[in-house]
């Protein structure tokens, strides 16, 4: 299988400098893009069926096409790499930034060229200090080699690139919360519409794009849309970095064709469950996706197929639940995270997730009541998409609502036994 | 208009609004929290959810927030769909998760928007059984009480305080269900409009701390429609009373004036009415002291004094038209003097002449908000006409709305607009001798002596129109600035010039008028707004009165038998020696006032005058709007309206015609007849004979409790409610149960709407005029046709030049401290600065003075010792003396004076 995004990445993560990157075809995508019109770059990305790898899967080329272009367009325009990888269980962007930072720099330069952005920011998770160090080095090298800065490679196009280290909140990963944070404000989400493509960072046209998405871009430009689509098993183009964590034999990340089945990822690449533990379910793409269970193992991991069975591919990095772990405890842990990370703006989110956390804690502590389960379902409905201001709460209740569906008997046992059946007593 | 369907019924609504506002205008009860008509939509609380349908065949629909949904042709929504009804109940249940349910001990209880909305959504049973989150509260100063446990995280407070009012020291902290709305640390809220938090907060987080000292529920208060007496803007207020003491003031919405907001001086100064310094009985000088006496005895004494003739009357800019008119009637027009500083009277006359001649029209506060380019000449508006500063702060947004419009963002979508606009601001230019509280939103500030401020104004007018007088010897810097100002004003759609008498400079006023005239000549509908110092400065001036100085001359010549001083402390008007001479020059000094002022203390007779809360009358604001205020309660003892005392004096003096002036309407009719300029005052409000459905308008809410028992300690028989011959309002909860005409609204209440947001039900459209039109009648409009011959006025003054030995003293104003009556309110008194003089840091170094040093100031014949305050921004050669501050002598300013180190 052809490795695209991870071809330069070695297990011990040596730094891939600009020469090493160029040696495997690096910056060829940017060179080619600069010879095309911005509209042509947008078109090839559109044709490639590249969809956003941050979790929502929005078609990338279409997103770019909403940016006002031409002489009348407001200036400056911005491109922002969303490198605030705070989704629990997700660590794929980190690998890309640590292992091959130039790939992101090139991807951003191409994307920025496509929308004629003047400034690019990498909004980086505050704890990713190693990524920051590598990206700084890569950006400096890119400037030295005229891949960034004024008049890039003599094309007349100029781009400045900066790294911004986040002060650290889950909300900063939401694209408009990120923009507020980047402006130095509270990371509350913004009203949409207007979308950032029209009124984004500092009120100017802005594209916010996940790291993995951007890393795909130079390859698409260099090799064409058809090549990119051919990498995939399904309609959604390209490869995907899948991951697994939990009690599997070999937790990790693998770049595989888009649409690889869950079973293959779990059993072949992750090596199956550890000896003595049984598989019970998984969150396919980070904490804010619905549980899938045994019957879903043959589902292809892409945006469309996973949605058909009531979950989302999300970031594609799975968290595996086994029979030795309490599902209620796992969900309580997640809801604690989401309740804590609620920005406190809209009522369903701040009040609902708090209530959910409290009720799940009560269940875990043997204080649960049947009415708590009813209310947990109630909160899941309350936080449905459209009812809240942003996607945090709808995502937050996905593991909860699906756990109530698939592991209902475990919840009931907590109430009946007045304790957590997995607790040591 | 746009057609929308609400629960399948068609309605025509204005297109430039959200569905929530449209639904409220249509009269639907749709609950909301984070939305406010003055703040727009942000979609935080999710309380105003409705169902939206694609078309008439769509039966399922989807839940949307009505505050985030623009009105659109054919839009179909449902308020009553069971699913969305359940959703709204779930939202309020969430909001109430950690709410302490302490309504019985909460000051907001009974007028709480959260209570109203909770009842409206039908949430009545608490299911949340876990620990609530709790907070530590802060001391926010003398005005606003803080109780964070009640918070429902609607964000209205910080949106109002920071985004609308420009405050910086209130912020949201932390996250999840633990967002804390407070200051970084305990301390007095810095913003001059912080008191509005009391009304902005939908529950009891921010409540009126002054009310707490004498707490009464809204339903137990007796109200009346009133007008603020603490500056010249005439904001409408609703004061509440119980047991003979005034308990609080809340905003009384006026679409053209104060809108939803008051300044803190207007809201928290009411306690002067309850002051220990009140005169409650007639006082007569006996044995070298003022002793209480009976009304009969004092009238008897007055009879003999008034019999001799040669009675001069000194009117007051803080007394009603009726009181001033009654005094004028008592003494005769030729012996009626204006109780104002000479410069103030001269300048007020000049301003009114300019406004009457035109061509520029004086705008309302609402129109000021809508101005899109503003030049302020010589006013620190926040200190002299505070509510105008809040309006001006909104005006800088006007031009920036173009950015949002270009992006097709509806202007009510508040945060989206602000995110698109970022730090962009429309043009506001401020020329003043010192830093003002609007500088943070000004495009440019110019700090200079009054002469230079006037020269800038003249230069702007000349830049706009070459035929306006040219300024000789203009520096290049000033010429360029004038050019930029002129350009911004010329490019605007609704330019505005703001000025006033604060610097006591005719040139500044001429300059402002000329800029406005030049704009009008260029075809711009320019506004010209002058501040006026007191609540009836304009009214007194329109009445026509001789200057105070002439009364002083007459007294010196021994021509004054008796001096009748109406609601006026003359020591605030003229230097001490002059006032002493005047008072000593008259054989008899009679003072009518509510407070025992330094002037009243010198009198032979003091008559207890009613404050605004104990009187009815009419005031004319800076815009020339005559507005009626009504008596809130019947005072104990002999306190009565000044005009009633004056009528009694006339009768005592044998003036039989005075007998006919029995009621306020009689006085107004006589006034209208005698003074054509004021003829319209009778239209300011319905007369006393007005009835709705045959009934009077009740001053008290229908739930007013304890009337039968509240005087039981005196007499177990319930007394008859007092009569009110002066207004169509009753001192009772009985009367017409529905909405009265707008000038007669004592308080806002509507079924299911107990909080002040009941005002929704009183407006023709939300945030628009009150039903039947906003109260008051404008007396001043530019004379038609005067535009053609509206010549430029005045001439540019000489440039200011610094003197070696002397400093040029300009007046400084303080929102808390410069106004007389508010000084007597304990909460305001806490914020009054200590007496001081301000000098430029540069000059201080030369005089070897530093902050806090005591210095001697010789100024216009007076010598005072005051502490030094350094003002970094003050231009060299200038100094400032605070006006009206306790401990600072009255001096005519501006003037050259000398500062020496002590």
Could you walk me through the main structural features you see in this protein, from its secondary elements to its overall organization?
The complex is a heterodimer of chains A (425) and B (902). In chain A, a hairpin with a 6-residue loop joins strand 5 and strand 6 (252-257). The radius of gyration of chain A is 22 Å and the shape is globular. Chain A is of the alpha/beta class and 425 residues long. Chain A has helices at residues 18-23, 28-34, 38-47, 60-65, 92-99, 101-115, 129-144, 175-182, 211-223, 225-230, 262-269, 303-308, 327-341, 347-364, 370-382, 392-406, 408-416; strands spanning 78-83, 119-124, 160-165, 206-210, 239-245, 252-257, 279-283, 317-322. With 902 residues, chain B is an alpha/beta fold. Helices cover 26% and strands 18% of the residues of chain B. Chain B is built from 26 helices and 36 strands. In chain B, the strands form nine sheets. A seven-stranded mixed β-sheet of chain B has the order 15-14-25-24-23-16-17. Chain B has a six-stranded mixed beta barrel with strand order 31-35-32-34-33-36. In chain B, strands 2-1-5-3-4 form a five-stranded mixed β-sheet, with helices on both faces. Chain A binds chain B through residues 169, 171, 186, 190-191, 193-194, 198-199, 202-203, 339-348, 350-355, 358-359, 362, 371, 375, 378, 382, 386-389, and chain B through 42-47, 49, 62-64, 68, 87, 90-91, 93-95, 97, 127-128, 130-131, 133, 152-153, 155, 172, 174-179, 403, 407-409, 413, 415-416, 419-422.
């Amino acid at each position: 299988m052809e490795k695209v995004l991870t071809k330069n990445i070695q297990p011990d993560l040596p730094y891939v400098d600009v020469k090493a990157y160029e040696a495997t075809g690096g910056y060829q995508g940017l060179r080619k893009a600069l010879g095309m019109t911005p509209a042509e770059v947008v078109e090839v990305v559109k044709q490639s069926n590249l969809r956003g790898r941050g979790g929502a899967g929005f078609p990338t080329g279409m997103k770019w096409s909403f940016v006002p272009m031409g002489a009348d367009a407001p200036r400056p325009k911005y491109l922002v790499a969303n490198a605030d990888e705070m989704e629990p269980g997700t660590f794929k962007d980190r690998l890309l930034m640590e292992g091959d930072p130039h790939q992101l720099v090139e991807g951003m330069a191409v994307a920025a060229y496509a929308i004629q952005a003047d400034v690019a920011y990498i909004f980086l998770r505050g704890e990713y200090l190693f990524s920051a160090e590598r990206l700084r080095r890569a950006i400096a090298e890119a400037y030295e080699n005229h891949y960034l800065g004024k008049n890039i490679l003599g094309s007349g196009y100029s781009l400045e690139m900066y790294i911004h280290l986040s002060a650290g909140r889950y909300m900063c990963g939401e694209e408009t919360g990120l923009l507020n944070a980047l402006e130095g404000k509270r990371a509350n989400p913004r009203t949409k519409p207007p979308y950032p493509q029209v009124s984004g960072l500092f009120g100017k046209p802005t594209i916010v794009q996940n790291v993995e998405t951007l890393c795909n871009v130079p390859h698409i430009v260099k090799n064409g849309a058809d090549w990119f689509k051919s990498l995939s098993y399904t309609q959604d183009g390209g490869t995907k970095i899948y991951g697994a964590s939990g009690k599997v034999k070999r937790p990790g990340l693998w770049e595989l064709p888009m649409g690889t089945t869950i079973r293959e990822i779990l059993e072949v690449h992750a090596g199956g469950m550890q000896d003595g533990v049984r598989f019970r379910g998984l969150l396919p793409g980070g904490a804010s996706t619905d549980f899938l269970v045994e019957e879903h193992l043959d589902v292809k991991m892409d945006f469309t197929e996973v949605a058909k069975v009531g979950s989302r591919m999300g970031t594609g990095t799975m968290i595996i639940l086994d029979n030795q772990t309490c599902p209620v405890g796992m969900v309580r842990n997640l809801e604690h995270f989401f309740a804590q990370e609620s920005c406190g703006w809209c009522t369903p989110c701040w009040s609902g997730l708090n209530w959910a956390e409290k009720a799940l804690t009560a269940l875990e502590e043997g204080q649960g009541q049947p009415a708590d389960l009813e209310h947990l379902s109630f909160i899941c409905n309350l936080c449905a998409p459209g009812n809240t201001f942003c996607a945090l709460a709808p995502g937050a209740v996905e593991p909860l609502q699906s756990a109530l569906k698939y592991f209902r008997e475990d919840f009931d046992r907590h109430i009946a036994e007045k304790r957590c059946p997995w607790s040591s007593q | 208009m746009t057609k929308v369907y609400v629960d399948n019924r068609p309605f025509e609504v204005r297109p430039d609004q959200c569905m929530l506002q449209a639904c409220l205008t249509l009269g639907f009860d749709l609950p909301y929290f984070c939305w406010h008509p003055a703040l727009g939509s942000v979609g935080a609380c999710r309380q105003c959810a409705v169902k939206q349908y694609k078309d008439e065949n769509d039966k399922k629909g989807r839940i949307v927030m009505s505050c985030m949904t623009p009105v659109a042709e054919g839009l179909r929504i449902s308020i009553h769909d069971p699913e969305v009804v359940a959703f709204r109940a779930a939202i309020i249940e969430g909001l109430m998760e950690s709410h302490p349910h302490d309504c019985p001990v909460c000051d907001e209880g009974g007028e709480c928007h959260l209570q109203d909305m909770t009842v409206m959504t039908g949430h009545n049973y608490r299911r949340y059984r876990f620990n609530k989150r709790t907070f530590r509260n802060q001391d926010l100063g003398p005005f606003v009480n803080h109780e964070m446990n009640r918070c429902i995280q609607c964000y209205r407070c910080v949106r109002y305080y920071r985004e609308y009012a420009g405050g910086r020291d209130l912020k949201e902290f932390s996250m999840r269900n633990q967002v804390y709305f407070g200051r970084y640390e305990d301390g007095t809220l810095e913003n001059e409009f912080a008191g509005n938090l009391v009304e902005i907060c939908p529950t009891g987080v921010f409540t009126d701390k002054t009310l707490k000292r004498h707490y009464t529920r809204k339903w137990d208060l007796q109200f009346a429609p009133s007008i603020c007496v603490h500056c010249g803007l005439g904001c409408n207020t609703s004061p509440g009373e119980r047991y003979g003491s005034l308990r609080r003031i809340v905003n009384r919405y006026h679409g053209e004036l104060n809108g939803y907001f008051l300044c803190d001086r207007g809201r928290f100064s009411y306690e002067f009415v309850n002051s220990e310094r009140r005169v409650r009985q007639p006082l007569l000088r006996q044995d070298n002291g003022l002793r209480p006496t009976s009304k009969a005895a004092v009238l008897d004494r007055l009879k003999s004094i008034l019999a001799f003739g040669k009675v001069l009357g000194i009117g007051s800019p803080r007394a009603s038209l009726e009181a001033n008119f009654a005094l004028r009637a008592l003494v005769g027009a030729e012996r009626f003097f204006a109780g104002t500083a000479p410069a103030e009277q001269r300048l007020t006359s000049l301003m009114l002449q300019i406004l009457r001649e035109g061509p520029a029209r004086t705008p309302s506060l609402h129109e000021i908000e809508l101005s899109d380019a503003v030049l302020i000449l010589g006013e620190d508006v926040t200190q002299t006409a505070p509510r105008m500063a809040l309006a001006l702060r909104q005006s800088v947004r006007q031009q920036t709305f173009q950015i949002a419009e270009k992006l097709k963002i509806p202007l009510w979508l508040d945060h989206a607009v602000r995110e698109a606009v970022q730090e962009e601001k429309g043009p506001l230019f401020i020329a003043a001798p010192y830093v003002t509280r609007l500088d943070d939103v000004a495009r440019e500030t110019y700090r200079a002596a009054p002469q230079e401020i006037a020269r800038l104004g003249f230069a702007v007018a000349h830049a706009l129109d070459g035929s306006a007088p040219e300024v000789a010897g203009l520096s290049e810097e000033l010429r360029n600035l004038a050019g930029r100002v002129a350009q911004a004003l010329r490019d605007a759609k609704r330019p505005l010039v703001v000025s006033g008498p604060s610097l006591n400079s005719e040139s500044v006023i001429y300059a402002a008028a000329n800029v406005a005239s030049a704009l009008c000549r260029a075809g711009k509908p320019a506004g010209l707004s002058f501040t006026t110092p007191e609540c009836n400065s304009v009214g007194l001036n329109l009445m026509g009165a001789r200057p105070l100085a002439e009364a002083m001359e007459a007294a010196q010549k021994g021509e004054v038998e008796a001096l009748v001083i109406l609601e006026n402390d003359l020591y605030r008007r003229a230097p001490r020696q002059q006032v002493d001479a005047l008072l000593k020059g008259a054989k008899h000094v009679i003072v009518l006032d509510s407070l025992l002022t330094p002037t009243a203390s010198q009198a032979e007779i003091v008559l207890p005058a009613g404050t605004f809360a104990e009187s009815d009358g009419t005031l004319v604001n800076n815009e020339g709007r005559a507005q009626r205020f009504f008596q809130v309660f019947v005072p104990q003892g002999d306190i009565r309206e000044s005009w009633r005392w004056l009528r009694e004096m006339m009768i005592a003096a044998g003036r039989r015609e005075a007998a006919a002036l029995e009621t306020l309407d009689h006085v107004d009719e006589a006034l209208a007849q005698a003074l054509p300029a004021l003829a319209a005052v009778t239209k300011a409000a319905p007369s006393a004979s007005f009835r709705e459905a045959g009934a009077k308008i009740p001053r008290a809410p229908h739930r007013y409790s304890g009337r039968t028992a509240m005087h039981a300690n005196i007499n177990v028989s319930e007394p008859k409610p007092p009569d009110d011959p002066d207004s169509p309002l009753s001192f009772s909860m009985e009367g017409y149960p529905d909405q009265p005409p707008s000038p007669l609204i004592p308080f806002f209440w509507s079924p299911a709407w107990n909080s002040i947001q009941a005002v929704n039900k009183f407006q023709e459209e939300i945030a628009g005029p009150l039903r039947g039109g906003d109260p008051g009648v404008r007396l001043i409009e530019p004379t038609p046709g005067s535009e053609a011959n509206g010549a430029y006025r005045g001439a540019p003054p000489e440039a200011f030049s610094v003197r070696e030995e002397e400093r040029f003293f300009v007046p400084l104003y303080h929102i808390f401290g410069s106004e007389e009556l508010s000084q007597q309110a304990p909460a305001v008194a806490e914020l009054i600065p200590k007496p001081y003089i301000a000098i430029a840091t540069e000059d201080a170094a030369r005089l070897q003075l530093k902050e806090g040093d005591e210095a001697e100031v010789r100024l216009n014949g007076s010598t005072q010792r005051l502490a030094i305050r350094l003002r970094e921004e003050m231009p060299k050669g200038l100094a400032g003396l605070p006006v009206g501050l306790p401990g600072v002598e009255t001096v005519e300013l501006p003037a050259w004076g000398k500062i020496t180190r002590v």
